[in-house]
Amino acid sequence: MNSGSLLRRTPLSTLVGAAVLGTALLAGCSDNKPAGGPPMGPMPVTVLDMQPQKVPTSIEVMAQTEGARETEVRARVSGILVKRLYQEGEAVKAGQPLFQIDRSSYEIALAEAKAKAEQTSREHNRLKSLIEAKAISQKEYDDATSANAIAQAVLRQAELNLSWTTVTAPVSGTTGRAAKSEGNLITTGADSLLTSIYQSNPIWVRFSLGDSDLAKLSGGRVTNKNITGIELILADGTVYPKSGKLNFLASNIDTTLGTQALRAEFDNHDNRLLPGQFVRIRLLTGERNGVFLVPQSAVVQTEQGAIVMLAGEGDKVAPRPVQAGEWHGKDWVILGGLKAGDKVIVDNLMKLRPGAPVAPHAPGEKPGAPAKDAAAAPAKQG
What we know:
about 375 residues; about 35% strand; 6 helices; conserved putative lor/sdh protein from methanococcus maripaludis s2 fold; alpha+beta; ten-stranded antiparallel sheet
């Protein structure tokens, strides 16, 4: 009988049992023989020595910038738009021409009004001498006076209409996109919008506080006493170099969103901030003493709460439940669970197990050069 037929007749359970027995024998042999490589030592980890600190307390919320003034530029007379006189998006000064509407019909209307006004003025002056001589009735003179006043008013309106064909900037600021193009028929009324001008210095920032944010403030509301400063955080995480101030505080809570609307004002003379940007507002609410700062990556969130890994007694991993507060920059503010001198592990967290030996070293040191207070750890493990 050949080996192939023998394998076909051997039950599967017998083969599995033989494999398990062979694995056990190999394991026994490996226990009796020295391993090919050196035994694994304690895992090098970076630790931070915890010391109580004083940190500012704050509330951070999403916000959006807006121009201090957003002024609509509208046509006051109808006509064909002949020319745009500005570059979209550029800064303009009050009174600067922005659009030109066809003038021809308004020039004709002005000439007619001027001729009519001159005629009624001459007639009024002629009748004035006659009324003094009692040569005409008082009614004739009054009618001439009224006709002259009407003609002069029509002349003034014609002058205004002609001047309004050149649409100027009502305020200084940054222009928006033109709403009409050359050749379009411009009409007065709802369709008269030509562009908008945004005043971005100072710039305003709109934001809202919810119930959970308001609960962090004394009295549960925003006042000048519990807000010590306002900072603006840009999209890249940097803090805007100028501090702001509150210039609007809603006196009611939005019943739909359950939030209170606020607005802050920031100096923006260099136009670094543009209307419509999404930013973050940080309200400084005071200071907190005796807390610890731990990098966000070193705090592990579990179902039971936040924990950190310590290099504990004998340089072994010791999980420690902590009470985490708000963020301060890139760190968690730890309100409870730590004491001065604790060594919090900040790297290799996924490889750690409670009770596992570690070789701690200070930040900036190489893993082979452990911190002074952990220098004896490798010797203890040997």
